[in-house]
Amino acid sequence: MLSSWFVNPAFMAGAALIAAPIIIHLLHRLNFRRVSWAAMEFLLDSQRRNRRRIFFEQFLLLLLRCLLILGVVVLLARPLAGERLWSLIAAGQRSEHVIVIDDSFSMGQRLGTTTGFGEGLRMTRLLLTGLADQPGKQFVTILRTSQRNEPEIAGAPLDRPLVDRFGQLSESWEPSDLATPPGDGVAQAASLLAANDASQRSVYLVSDYRAKDWGEEGDLVKSLRKLSENQTELYLLDVASQASPNLTVERLSASLGSAAAELPFDVAVEVHNDGPDAVERVRVHPRLNDSPLPAQTIERIESGQSARVTFPVRANEIGRHRLQVSLEEDALATDNKRWLAFDLEPSIPVLIVAGDARRLGARFLSFALAPGGGVNTGLVATIHGPEFPTGVDLAEFRAVYLVNVPQLDGKASEAIVDFVKDGGGLGIFLGEQISVDSYNAQLAAEGGFLPAALGPVRDVSDENELGVGLAWQSHPVFRVFEGERNPFLDAVRFQRYFTLSDEEAARDEESIVASTSEGDPLVVESTLGRGRVMLFLSTVEPSWNTWARNPSFVVAMLELQRHLATPAIEGPEARVGVPWQVDLDTALYRPAATFTIPSRGDGAARTLEVDAERTGLAATVTLDQTEVAGIYRLTRTRTDGSEEIVAKAINVDPAEGKLAKLTAEARRELLQGIEHHYFLPSDFRADADEGAFEPRDVILLILVLMLFFEQWLAYRLSYHLK
Amino acid sequence: MTNDSRRYLDPEVASRVSSLELRARQIVEGLMSGRHRSALKGQSVEFAQHREYTPGDDLRHLDWKVWAKQDRLYIKEFVEETNLRATILLDASASMDYGTGETHKHSYASLLAAAVSYLLLRQSDSVGLVTFDQEIRAEVPHRNPTTHLQTILHALHVESPKKKTDLEAIMRRVSESQSRPGMVVLISDLLADRESVLKSLRMLRQRRHDVIVFHLLHEDEMEFTFKGMTRFVGLEEAAQLTCDPRALREDYLESLERYLGDLRRLAGQTGVDYRLTRTSEPIDAVLARLLHERIRA
């Protein structure tokens, strides 16, 4: 009990010494000399008049001496102050405190020589010290939002040793890479306190109070309101981070559909400017497999906007590669980096299904994509036909082309739809053999992949012997031809082409990528799932048009391939904190895997063996520990004993880099009706940083004053002769 | 020789008496050296009656004829024609038994009484002595022969004082026994009932006695400079008090001063020659002051 009040409670045993002046006083009274005295009348008269005064003076002197000894004892025992009256009243009651420390990476924002997180830990330590100094039974739970289900300190009695333990524990703490909203931590605190019968319950939220975490009344405010309604004291501890210019690598992507070993592919980096002013000449530093690549520059990024820089990257080695981009240091370092993991094959396989027996169009297309000879496009075209190859796994190809395929059965159509939905690209060229009815009935219907229902073939040669020209929109396929100095496409002429059905006349013009000079659609694009479908309404071979004989054809087809191989919707990016699940086909792999987990900073990666959870023949291995951004690897073992490695980049949530503060007005509005106490770092005294406020100086001063008073009183009571 | 005579020859008493006489003589002779006029006057010549001899009577006044006839010692008494009949009242109560050596109150008082007696007898005045506490312990009738001093000195010897003072009763008795006004020299610490002291002095003055009061107090009683825890036990009273005397000093001195103030006022009002005398003061200085002031008066 005394340990709640004193640093050295053992010294308080010395309080017994206050008996010393009393004993000395009593002994002194017993040790008198005897005098036979004549003038007793005057003496007794004086005694009668002074009895009260003498008693009071002697009592005061004795009390002072006792207090002086007690003061010295208390000084040695080092009392802890800060007790308030209500605390004394509350002595003996049980108080439960839950401290939620926001360790999302925005807390890593630099604040002078420390960070928001460091400031939060300092405030927490002072808070704990203050609470430890209070009388009564204090229990505390401390949880970080990133590990809210595993509190660092759970329901521990709050005393000075615990404060020291917290100090030691927190020395190794740093902000996580996660963007866990503080509301999750508060909800966890509410859950912990729900079953608690403490007479006084308090929740402390140590956070940086960003606008993004609060916004409209969300889970956080609801949790706080619920806690307040349950008579829980709410303390909001703001580490006082301020909004400051911050750049965030928002996205790192590569056109991997057209990537192969020794072939350049495009890498795009998107950087968001969260600052109040535009920034210029933002340097982006890419590293491929830890080797630096030439830095890229984004000339200007407006405030609150994002800008992209695209640059080619080439890797000569087949297999796994890792790409990292980083920005120069700013207020928040964690969101300045982003990783990408990818595998490079020796070539890019594409499938061409030729509908006609002669495969004329397929050969033109194949030649354009993979001309052979000394020209390496990285593409390897496989031609099947005239039937659709139902036994082939389309996932092995980056793109599939249907060239003058008369019709497709339901199974083939389904395979193609699945392929496209998974992000594959589909190019469709028409021709003499097309069955419009079949196409419209099956492929253009709901659940099909055809971008538009077909109408009749239009032959313009009667009206214009040379045919009509090609007019294109700004589109990745045609972007390379933009400009006055690229007149090749002007020479292309179309004599015949399919029109679209009447129902398609009013379709969205944005899906029309190119049309005839008279306005009839020639190239129509649609997306299906994550993939793209491009429909060319004429033939590949130069039977209905002259394009295949034009030099622009090869270029356009290569651009078409690149465009189709790039998924329309990129797959969900792996984020920190989200478990990584990998399915294992037990027919191919052993039901276990080893994960290699990156470490923060320059530390070594660690490995973790995980057994698969089996459901029938299927098995799944899950890595929950994905709190650190970086490249993760999974090593799985085939049934034949050989190993296979899968790499995955797990990145931070770029939204956490938005540092705008929750304004005081917004906070008041959001917390209207919720009783709470709001504190800033300035509310926590710096001089108490090394521990609780110890009133040594005050006690010392009081002791000195008491000593002077005692001396004065003793002098006065010693009745010196005047 | 009678038993009384033997008592008087007690060597210790004799030694003390002779020492007292010697000192008294030294004091007075030194004091009177060069002085020509008596400050305290008195003469006697005419025979009046016989009375039994008492120790200290001048042997020159023994009526040898009577002794020859009756073998009894008678002293011839004369009709007083002296102009001064002095009665020395010496307080021999317990309160006087304070002090040590020459500052012992009773010793000091005895020496002072002896000196005054010698002084008076030297100028042939009639001197009587009464020692008292709550009653008269010894009484020496008025005589004027210089041999009377021995009688007085013997009477001064009192074994250690033990009883309380009853000043009023003694004064009344002494006053009533005086047929005519004379000089009354009271040597006392006056530590008795205050009203009775004042009343006694007032009564003496009402009977037109020339009253000289030597108020004897010891230095300790005047200054009260005791230190440390002390238990004061009353010399005349059963009361006792354990205290830190420094705490009471101021008030004690105030009480004492109030009492002295009352006495001075009374002296001023009634004409009592009041002389506060510390036992630390040399007796010759005390007497010199008395004589000096009396001559001036």
From TrEMBL, chain A:
It comes from the Bacteria. Keywords: Membrane, Transmembrane, Transmembrane helix. It comes from Kolteria novifilia. The chain crosses the membrane at residues 6-27, 59-77. Residues 6-79 form the Aerotolerance regulator N-terminal domain. Signal peptide: none annotated. InterPro entries: Aerotolerance_reg_N, CARDB, Class_I_gatase-like, Double_TM_dom, Ig-like_fold, vWFA_dom_sf. The keyword Aminoacyl-tRNA synthetase does not apply. Residues 245-331 form the CARDB domain. This is Aerotolerance regulator N-terminal domain-containing protein. The keyword Membrane applies.
TrEMBL record, chain B:
It holds the Pfam family DUF58. SUPFAM superfamilies: vWA-like. Residues 50-255 form the DUF58 domain. This is DUF58 domain-containing protein. It comes from Kolteria novifilia.
